[in-house]
Fold this sequence. Notes:
The protein is mostly helical. It has helices at residues 2-9, 11-20, 26-60, 69-87, 89-93, and strands at 94-98, 103-107.
Amino acid sequence: xxxxxxxxxxxxxxxxxxxxxxxxxxxxxxxxxxxxxxxxxxxxxxxxxxxxxxxxxxxxxxxxxxxxxxxxxxxxxxxxxxxxxxxxxxxxxxxxxxxxxxxxxxxxxxxx
Length: 112
């Protein structure tokens, strides 16, 4: 799901931005596209981590019963919730700036 999100909601727009060095999609989509990018990376990494832990447990304790459907759904929900929390700062810091000949989408981190 995370990879599909990136390919449909991020790749085309980022390609156009890199090709023309101009962001014509507005500030809202600047924030959303960067959020989706970070969200998909987090969700993919955490999913691979959960799969690795599951495989480790299956090898180390082969006689122990596997996780049930409700536990699996809880793990998936937790992965997405934590990914959203970790990615949410991107919604606050990415913005656009009107330069002389183009508009750029960039992170404007607060000073401090």
